[in-house]
Amino acid sequence: MRPINVELLQGHDVGVSSAYYRPTEKELLEDYLRAVPYLTLTHEERLRSQAARLESRINSDAHAISDQKEQKIQELQDKHDRLVRLLVERGVLKPE
């Protein structure tokens, strides 16, 4: 965290700096949230963060696999259609 943000969050007077630096509440919150893993004594926050990253990765992988599966199905359908057309052209199958 930026030292001045620490002082501001603790309610300390930052003197002349307050005239030049006025972070929004959102900026203070974002800075604080980046520091939370280092301020936490338990592993809970780190594990929660790791679980979220892994869940995101699993979802991403699942989407990729689903996309690959759909592409493979389409390829097989196209091959099937070409084979049926060829067999109809050669008279092996009757047209539908």
Summarize this entry quickly:
This protein is an all-alpha fold and 96 residues long.
Would you give an account of this structure?
This protein is 75% helix and 0% strand. The protein is an all-alpha fold and 96 residues long. The protein has a domain of 63 residues. It is rod-shaped and about 95 Å long. The chain starts with a helix and ends in a 7-residue tail after the last helix.
Blueprint of the fold:
Blueprint: H1 3-9, H2 17-20, H3 25-39, H4 44-89
Features:
96 residues, mainly alpha
Major β-sheet annotation? none
Average pLDDT, all residues = 91
Radius of gyration: 30 Å
Sequence stretches where pLDDT stays below 50 over 5 or more residues:
none
Shape field: rod-shaped
- SS-based class: mainly alpha
Order of helices and strands: HHHH
Distance between the termini: 72 Å
Hey, roughly how much beta strand do the residues contain?
under 5%
What is the tally of beta strands? 0
Instruction: Count every helix, treating DSSP H or I runs of 4 or more residues as helices.
Output: 4
Overall helicity: over 70%
